[in-house]
Amino acid sequence: MQYLLAERPKTGYSLNVDAYNTSLTKSTPNSLTGDARSDLGSATVGNYALFAGGFTTDYKNTVNAYNTSLTRSTATTLTENKAYLASASIGNYALFAGGKKSSNGYSNVVNTYNATLTRGTTPDTLSYKPYQFSGGSVGDYAVFAGGRLSSGYSNIVNAYNSSLVRSTPTTLSKSRYDLASAKNGNYLMFAGGYTDSSSGGTVNTIDVYNSSLVRTTPVTLSNTAATLDGASVGNYALFGGGYSGQYITSDPISTVNAFNDSLARSNPSSLSSAKSYISSISVGKYILFAGGKLSSDASNTIDAYYED
Length: 308
Known about the structure:
It is a single chain. The protein is mainly beta and 308 residues long. Helix content is 0%, strand content 39%. The protein has 2 domains: 1-171, 6 Propeller (Neuraminidase), CATH 2.120.10; 173-308, Neuraminidase (6 Propeller). Strands 17, 18, 19, 20 and 21 form a 5-stranded antiparallel β-sheet that branches. A hairpin with a 2-residue loop joins strand 22 and strand 23 (236-240). Mean pLDDT is 89; it is low at 1-11.
């Protein structure tokens, strides 16, 4: 399947979608429908890539789907208008969870979509109301972790199995938001993030959950970072970019951390430019790190990494 990237533009908001195939050839399918928006969620289910929610001058509930031919359709809307949500895929479902739905309104609702783009019965809500948090999958579970709250930050972890039954695994070792996740073999890794400034701002912490949802903290990033992103290819999980330092008062970084399936860390070549709020995804043998915020502008650069 071709994978799609929807990016925040240099100014304003965007409906543009770029697609790259396994040879990294770019095409431009039909744009997202409705208003241009940023900070939306994305997940895959069956033969579809879904983009949900987002923000312009207000919060959106639109869900667009692209099939393997890059034909766009519109699925049933989210049950709430929101952005800064997290997403994950498990079994026959794509899950869109939590998020911010107004200037002071926060969500714990989880919407599910099956391979026919039907929005299913809403499962048990998250046990908290986070935004700017992270989701991923490992074993039989979709896992959501951390996030920003109406006041403070969270270390809570919620997991949903393929029957959409919720459980609450061991919490993260640190409360934080704007963290990144990536799956690596039998492990799901939650890396970096912001914590309170009294604790130094960004962290290099990585919490690792195995397929039984047992947590360990065997490794760290080589640097502290938040607003980074992560993806997996072959035997590696990569985390790249972000800020390192106090909340948005430091310059972005270009560092890339790689972890093999034994969780041993290495540092491949840096990104072509230092940037934060980066987006990453895997396609074929490649990991793509796309867009992001430079020190004083936004980026349309895409860096590709592959396993030899």
